[in-house]
What does this fold into?
Amino acid sequence: MTDFESINKLTSQSFKQQKGLIKRVLNGKPSQCAECKQPLELVLPEDQKAKSSGIYCKKGCTDIELELDAVNK
Ligand SMILES: [Zn+2]
It folds into this structure.
């Protein structure tokens, strides 16, 4: 549970929004950054090069690092 608890330090509202967004992206549904409206890019551990796994937009206003152990449950 420690991974989940560390993520949960975000405010509960943004945590909720983030969870919904992560779910959509992981389900392969096209999603846009709320700030810049650019398509979000999902980076998984297997294609990760420089950055950690997570969800990013091109401009960098969406930058969600994923704890995949927690997300996959
Ligand atoms: Zn953006």
Notes: The chain is about 35% helix and 10% strand. The pocket of zinc ion is lined by residues 33, 35-36, 38, 57, 59, 61-62 (CB under 6 Å).
